[in-house]
Amino acid sequence: MTGTGEYFDEMHASDGGVRDAYAGYQQWFAEQGSKYLSRKHRDAETQFRRTGITFNVYGENEAEERLIPFDMVPRIIDAGEWRRLTRGIEQRVSALNAFMHDLYHRQEIIRAGRVPERLFRNNAAWLPNMVGFTPPGGVYTHIVGIDLVRTGPDEFFVLEDNARTPSGVSYMLENRETMMAMFPELFMRVPVESVSNYPRRLAKSLAACAPEMTQGRPNVAVLTPGIYNSAYFEHAFLADQMGAELVEGSDLRVVGGRVQMRTTRGYEPVDVIYRRVDDDFLDPLTFNPDSVLGVPGIMDVYRAGGITIANAPGTGVADDKAIYSFMPEIVEFYTGEKPLLPNVETWRCADADSLKYVLDNLAELVVKEVHGSGGYGMLIGPTSTKAEIAEFRKKIEARPENYIAQPTLALSTCPIFTRSGLAPRHVDLRPFVLVSPDNIDITPGGLTRVALKKGSLVVNSSQGGGTKDTWVLKD
């Protein structure tokens, strides 16, 4: 398997040689027999079934729950590349947090004409309840996932910002645990940075954001919508790994001006809630009155400084793909620097000139809903039929402000294990970032998602993608 020339192959150079980052792995791989590797590939799937790492697919009748596909060939990033990426990620996350504070306070970036007011005034993720309020420690985005794609040796782009409730970290951790269990000798030969301490770092970071009134060690809980949520495995996994309580809305109530948790000893105050419940369901007294997933009155306690909610309500504005298109201006406005990690070129269909260009070139572009996620609600022009393009054209024309468009990127490839050997498949990367009042902590690795279908550019698990272990090499 060699680089095709059309896409950047992260393992092999165009002459067929192995790149330095993969040299140790390639040497080990060449020493293994094909029967041994095939058996290990089956073992990995068995372990994932035993662990229960599944996800739910909505809107499909034949199967609600599926196994997360896992590929046992790691995605490898050298230490120098990772240092460059972390500088860009830190800059972007710092700007995102400053942007959120500004949006809910003086709105200087809007006064300066750098971001149009319409982007958030008509945005369902914008919460008037947060205006004038600063979360404990000044942190809005406690846990952030920045989706990156690569197109060349030194060409990384930010594809998406996940500042609301980024998911996938449990798969990052289980991928590594599976690899270490299957190939312990490989980790003796190739020095790889650890990711296993993420839960401890998460607990420490959340505790550092506890309200000022907290006495003693902060009490941290993970708020889940329940067992039927697509990411419930992750909620339970992280709570267990952090030593935190996993709670549902029915386990919590407001007592004496504090959010308290039901225990065998009665109710105990909670200081920090890592919530995996959407804003609209968080407090039926403030948002959706029909919600049974949240805690009545929790927003009053929050605004009174009695609890930390991570991530802060209202951070979903930063997930909006129309806001994403302004991130270069946002980064420069709050940091005074040019972005170290560029955006993918983006056309905003709300702009007349951009709309005309998009409609004229639908067959070559990727079009996304500004509030869409998970690979849903999008058009990939080069792989769509004329009928699909025509149907999507009608949607854009009806609500142009609901869409952005981007070029079809030449995503880099990494090898996956197949019956016939290694074969290149397209990948992206979601590093996970923890933010506390005095620190931005980036786990060395992240979740690599891989398009398991040959030629596919869609890496989402809901659309047929899988995951890989991500290795950052030690110096």
Automatic annotation (TrEMBL):
Residues 74-451 form the Circularly permuted ATP-grasp type domain. Pfam families: CP_ATPgrasp_2. This is Circularly permuted type 2 ATP-grasp protein.
